[in-house]
Design brief:
By secondary structure, this protein is α/β, with parallel strands linked by helices. It has seven helices and eleven strands.
Amino acid sequence: MPIGKNLYFASDFHLGAGGHASSREREDRIIRWLDMIKDDVAELFLMGDVFDFWFEYKTVVPKGYVRFLGKLAQLTDAGVKLYLFKGNHDMWMFDYFVTELNATIIPNELVIERAGKKLYLHHGDGLGPGDNKYKFLKKIFRSRLCQWLFARLHPNLGIGIANAWSHNSKQVNAKIGDEKLHPKEWIEIYSNEVLQTQYYDYMVYGHRHKPMDIPLTGTSRYINIGDWINYFTYAVFDGYTLELKYFKENLT
């Protein structure tokens, strides 16, 4: 399998959410997408909430997702560079994917330059005005003390608690999801603030579960790559432009 030249971006798979059957159907769709891009992908950016919950105990990880992880291994073994961003649902990634997939774990933002274009990449959680409760909780959840304490819980209890929290989090986010769209989109506000001191051609995020392509200050653009629960969207940069796309397939 040759190494391609394009950069691909996707986010918010939430594997594990909605029960086994729903998650497996979503996993299979993602694998078909990865098969579609395998010949022209050079770098793959999975920008957070790939899993509905993830925690790496010293010798235990959440079960499942073997087909998806196997496909990622196939890509990275062929030379594809993989970046995994910590989202608000899977922020407790440590070294498992580094060891098994040679992935680069991105805890916050990542700035890259490719073909003369500057890109600012972030999952999108905790940015912009408001949401102070989550910003406070994020600091706690990412603290070493919190992680150490959680690791003391038996996986059955710890993952059970986390899944309940994740379900509640999605319900809250669903209620506010339509309240802060353009022109009051909070990530858009944050992006324009960043652009006051540093220019980026593209500012790419996930988290909002809504595909968006919004002009920013100057010629910069805010791209939200949506999700794989409702939209099945991704973005691709071919060295000239970054384009938001929908994965459509005919299975008949």
